[in-house]
Amino acid sequence: MNTHRSLRFFLLALTLAAPLGAESNDRPNLPPSGLCTQVGIDVVNDGLKYENGTVSASGSWKAPGGPSRGGLLEYRLDSDRYQAETQTGTSGTWKYSEKYKECGSHVLEIVAFPSVVEDSRTVYCLPLGKTVKAFFQLPCQSMTSTLDCAGWSCQEGNCTGTCTGNAVGGQWGYVALFGIDDSNYVALPSSQKGPWNQTVTCAQGHRVSFKARDRLGAGGFSPIAERPCGQ
Predict the structure, then answer these.
(1) Are 46 and 59 in contact (CB under 8 A)?
(2) What CATH number is given to the structural domain containing 41?
């Protein structure tokens, strides 16, 4: 058994009958040719579990047909290829394990392709690929945010002070944003982890607003934290 991380389809250089795709068992590829017309493959997922930050699954595969010589197995999380391996024979078992902590809804796909040998070359029958899917959900922690301001200096109704915002509970990599009255936010380009300090100038009677967005600015927002201007 040979396991290849981040397989970049060196196998495609061997023999290509059709482009690779693995969205479902009903594959819209070109029909198989050569010895690939005499084989098939089935893949079974016996179960998936998530423990201690690791998603794992196991199952079996079977490639019926006289010329069958093995199979190519791909493991995909949310359509990204994480692992791939080749196995010889006409049946076998597979195991998959990967550290994974991104919250939300996810799908693990196991894609199997039979192989044959033609003219001393291993040919992977890509049009015959079969896919099984397992869905799982990882809980997302709720972000919380805080805001404190100090050192105010006020003159003629305008105040300048230093405000400190912080956010916790989200995925790594925060973008901090300060605004006035929950608008006109300015993102800080510095640290991806709080707390964050910002000099703020505002008019009395208005509010200083703070929020953060996780996953390097691609995730969800924290609740808005606010303090009265000049207080």
Answers:
(1) yes
(2) 2.60.40
